[in-house]
Amino acid sequence: MFRLEKRPAPSRFWTASTPVLAVVLTMLAGGAMFAFLGTDPLAAIRTIFWDPIFGEFAFYYRGQLLVKAAPLILIAIGLSLGFRAGIWNIGAEGQYIIGAISGAAFGLAFYPSESILLFPAMIVAGALGGWLWAMIPAILKTRFNTNEILVSLMLVYVAEAMLASVSSGLLRNPDGLGFPGSRNFKDYPAAHNNFLIESAGVHWGVVTAILAVIFAYALLNRHLLGFQIRLTGAAPKAARFAGVNPSMLVVICMGISGALAGLAGMFEVTGPAGQISIDFNSNYGFTAIIVAFLGRLNPIGVMLAGLLMALTYVGGDAAASTLGLPGAAIQLLQGMLLFFLLAVDVLANFKIRFGKTEAA
Amino acid sequence: MDLSSINPLVLLASIMVASTPILLAALGEMVTEKSGVLNLGVEGMMITGAVCGFVIAVETGSPLLGFVGAALGGAVLSLLFGLLTQYLLSNQVASGLALTLFGLGLSALLGQKYIGIKAPPTTDFDVPLLADIPVLGPILFRHDMMVYFSIALVALVWAVLKFTRAGLILRAVGENHDAAHALGYKVVRIRMAAIAFGGALAGLGGAYISLIRVPQWTEGMTAGAGWIALAIVVFASWRPWRVLLGAYLFGGVTVLQLNLQAAGVNIPVVYLSMLPYLVTILVLVIMSAKRGRAALGAPAALGRIFHASG
Question: Is-contact B113 B175, C-beta < 8 A?
Fold first, then answer.
C-alpha cells in the first residue's frame, strides 16, 4: 500500500503537468468507452482531438473552435476568481441565460433601430443582467449567510423557466407565424454580433474573452484585490486578520463572474445562436466549471483549458456526424476529464510513499 | 379558473408519491453529511439511479430488480466520489460537482436506447385493514412499497443514529475526525460506508422517479431534485424526522403547482413552475438567517479533509 505525505508547498512541476496527465488518462478511458460503444477508439480520438486542428476540413473546424471557446473562457475566468477565494458560484448557467435574455430583449425593444450605439448598449444590458442574477445569491450569502451553492443553482432552474416563457411569449418573433423563438439577429444588423474575422471565428465575444483573460491576470498578479482573493483562498483566518472584508469579496467575485457569464450569454444569443429560443443555451455554464478547474483557476490556464474543451465540443460534433458517436459520450468524456483531474491533483499536494502503512 | 376540480384527498395521496424521491435522496445525504462528508453529487447519483433502475426493470420486467440495480448504481458512483475525497484527498465541493456532471453524461449515454419506452408497472400494496378505513385509507395506505419503505427507513435511520453504538461512532466521526481517529475508529472506512449509503438511497430516489412517478426515461429527468434534497438536509438541521417533514413540504409545493396549472389558475405557468425552486431558496434564507452553523446542527467536521498523518 501507499501513504501520502503532505508537501510543504504544492509541487510546481506537478501543478503544471497534472492537467496534461488528466487529458491523457481521459483519452485512454474515453478510448475504452468508445471501443465499448463499438467505435474504433483510435479513429474517435483522432476525430475529436486531432482532425479539427490538423485534419482535412480543419479550415472549417478552426473557426468553430474560437466560437465555442469564447463563452467557456468568459464564464470560467469569472468562476475561477470566486473559486480561488472559496466562493462557489455554481449557477453560471442561470446568469448566462439571464444575460442573454436581457441583452437580446434590450436590442429587440428598439427593433428596427439602425443606431451604432445599440450593440454597445446591449452588451451593457447583458452584463448587467448576469450581474443582477448573481447578486441574488451574493446578497443572501452576505446578509443571511445562505449557502451560495444551493441558491445560485436553484436560480438556474428559475432562469430556465423564464427562458421558456419569454421565448414563446414576450420575445417571440411577431412575424414568426406563432413559432416559439425570437427574431433572428442575423436579420437585424445593428444588433447582430457579426464575425469580425469570419474564417477564424472571431466575434466580439472572442475579443472580450481575451480582454477578460488579461484583466484577470493583471487583477490576480498586480492588484491588491487579487492578492486578497488569493489570500482568502489559502488562509481565510489570516485574511481576516489582514483586514480583508469577506462580504465585499463575495459581492465582488460573484458580481464579476455573473457579469462575465451574462456577457457570454449575450454574445452567444446575438451571434452563433442567433435568437432567443428555449434551448439556445448549451450548458456552457456548467462545462465552464470543468474549464476553470482544468485551467487550475489561473487565467492563462483557463484560456488553454477553454480551447481544449471547445475542441471536445467541435470534435464531438465531427465524431457524431462521421462516426455516429452519441452526443452523450462527449458529455461523459468531459465529466471524466474533471474526475481524472481531481484524482491526479493529489500528486501536486502530496508525496506518495510506498511501503508500510499506518492506521487510518 | 376552477379550483373545485382539485380534490384535496387525491392531492394528499399524490404528495406522498411526489415526495418519496426527494425523501430517499435527502435521507441518504443526511447520513453522509452526519459522517462529515459533503457530497454535492446527489443529482448525478439520482439520475444514474434513475437510468440504471429503468434499464434493469425494462430488461428483466421486474421493478424490484430495477430498484436493487438503482441502489447499486448510485452506490458505485458515490464510491468514485469516496475514492477521490477520502483516499486522494480532493476538494469535496469540486468532486461532488464532478460527480453530478459525470452522472448526467453517463445517464444520457446509458439511457439513449430507452427513450419512449414505458416502465413495467408496479403494483400498489394495500396495507391490510388500514386500507379499508374510509377516506384516510385510500390516501395513506394504498401506495407502492417504496413509499412505506422510505418512511420506515426514516425511523430506522433515526433509531440507529440515536440509540446504537454504530450511530454514535458515525456522529463522532462527523463531529471531530481527529478525536475519532485517536480513539481508534477507522475514519475513512466509516465515511466510505456512509457515502455508499447516501449513494444507494439517491439511486433509489432516482429510480422512483423513472419507474413509478413518471414512469418513463427522459434525459435530465431529475430536474434538480438532487439539489433540492441537499437543501432539505439544511432545512432539517440534520434530523431524520425533519427530513421527512421537509421532503413532504417540498413535494406538496410541487404537486400543488402542478394541480394549479391543470386547474387553469390565473397565474402564468412560468411562475408556477418556478415555485419549488423559489420556495427552496426562501426556506434556506429563513433557516440560515440569524443562526450560525453550530446552532443549525451541522456536523462540525462537515466538508473538512481528513489526513491521518497530517
Answer: no
ipTM: 0.84
CA distance B153 to B233: 16
Residue B223: pLDDT above 90?
no
CA distances (Å), A344 to each of A297, A337, A339, B81, in order?
Answer: 16, 11, 9, 14
Distance CA A223, CA A227 (A): 7
* Predicted confidence (pLDDT) per residue in A273-305, tens digit: 878 887 777 788 888 988 998 888 899 999 999
First vs last C-alpha separation in chain A: 12
The pLDDT of residue A99: 95
Q: Amino acid identity of B168? A: L
- Assess if residue A356 is contained within a domain: no
Q: How confident is the model at residue B79 (pLDDT cuts 50, 70, 90)?
A: very high
CA dihedral sign, ordered A153, A157, A162, A168: positive
Task: Please answer yes or no on whether B102 and A338 come within 8 Å at the CB atom.
Answer: yes
**Domain total in chain A:** 1
For B24, the grid coordinates are 430517499
Domain membership flag for residue A326: no
Q: What does the block give as the cell for A271?
A: 451571434
Interface of B with A in 56-95 (CB under 8 A): 80, 83-84, 88-91, 93-95
What are the start-end ranges of the H helices in A235-298? 236-241, 246-270, 284-294
C-alpha torsion sign, points A267, A271, A272, A276: positive
Contacts of A130 (CB under 8 A, 6+ apart): A95, A96, A98, A99, A102, A258, A259, A260, A261, A262, A263, A265
Collect contacts of B6-9 with beta carbons under 8 A, ≥24 apart: B6/B259, B6/B260, B6/B263, B9/B135, B9/B138, B9/B139
Q: Could you list the residue range(s) of the whole structural domain that residue A155 is in?
A: 68-301
Q: Which CATH number is B3-296 given?
A: 1.10.3470
In a domain, A250, yes or no: yes
**Cα(A307)–Cα(A314) distance, rounded to whole angstroms?**
10
Whether residue B223 and residue A147 make contact (CB cut-off 8 A), yes or no, is no
Q: Which residue has the cell 434525459?
A: B219
Query: A117 to chain B, minimum CA–CA distance in Å?
Result: 33
- Read off the DSSP letter of residue B216: B
Asked whether the beta carbons of B67 and B146 are under 8 A apart, the reply is yes
What CA dihedral angle connects A300, A302, A306 and A309, to 10 degrees? 120
Residue (of B178, B164, B190, B199) closest to B79 by Cα position: B199
Gyration radius of chain B's alpha carbons: 20
Question: B101 to chain A, minimum CA–CA distance in Å?
Answer: 5
Confirm whether A106 is domain-assigned.
yes
- Select from B88, B105, B234 the Cβ nearest to the Cβ of A328: B105
A345/B90 CB distance under 8 A? yes
Classified as helix, coil or strand, A4 is strand
Which pLDDT does position B175 carry in this prediction? 86
Residue whose entry in the numeric block shows the C-alpha cell 469570419:
A198
Q: How far apart are CA A319 and CA A321, in angstroms?
A: 5
Name the residue among A196, A202, A195, A193 with its Cα closest to residue A62.
A202
Report d(CA B120, CA B110) in Å as an integer.
18
Asked if pLDDT for residue A171 goes beyond 80, the answer is no
